[in-house]
Write a structure and sequence with these properties.
The protein is mostly helical and 139 residues long. It has helices at residues 3-8, 10-16, 22-66, 71-85, 116-125, and strands spanning 96-99, 105-108. It has 5 helices and 2 strands. Strand 1 and strand 2 (105-108) form a beta hairpin.
């Protein structure tokens, strides 16, 4: 039988605790009392927080009405704030220009791992990386 069914039915509960002494039954009652008190405090705290939140929302609603601000205005503000938060990667111009084995002209920013095609080009042509630097006046 389900524990809650026994606990919430007086006849079943009486039968379940019939073998307990009065001191053991008193301990069970004290434990239940502590659980009840904790639950009561939690419920009161949750209700207080809910009421404070509703009061704050009502105050905001009043301010919005006084200043002719709509929910869509707040939505746009939130979207703008979110887009400002996003970190945008800056575009790094290429630093090196080289030709791969197939004759394709490729570029590399000089950041991150050196492209294999670039390393092969250096080896194939017997040059240094500096020989492939892009000078802004070359473009």
């Amino acid at each position: 039988m389900d524990f809650l069914t026994v606990l919430t039915n007086a006849r079943l509960l009486k039968s379940a605790v019939s073998t307990l002494s009065s001191s053991e039954l008193n301990e069970v009652i004290q434990k239940l009392r502590r659980i009840y008190d904790e639950k009561k405090v939690d419920e009161e705290l949750n209700e207080k927080m809910r009421k404070e939140r509703m009061d704050a929302l009502n105050a905001i609603k009043t301010i919005m009405a006084q200043n002719n601000i709509s929910a869509s205005d707040l939505s746009q503000l939130a979207e703008a704030a979110e887009s400002e938060k996003q970190i945008r990667r800056r575009v790094v111009p290429p630093k090196y220009k080289f030709t791969d084995e197939k004759g394709n002209i490729l570029t590399w920013t000089g950041q991150g791992r050196t492209p294999t095609a670039f390393l092969e080009c250096i080896k194939r042509e017997g040059k240094t990386m500096d020989d492939y630097l892009i000078h802004r006046d070359d473009e």
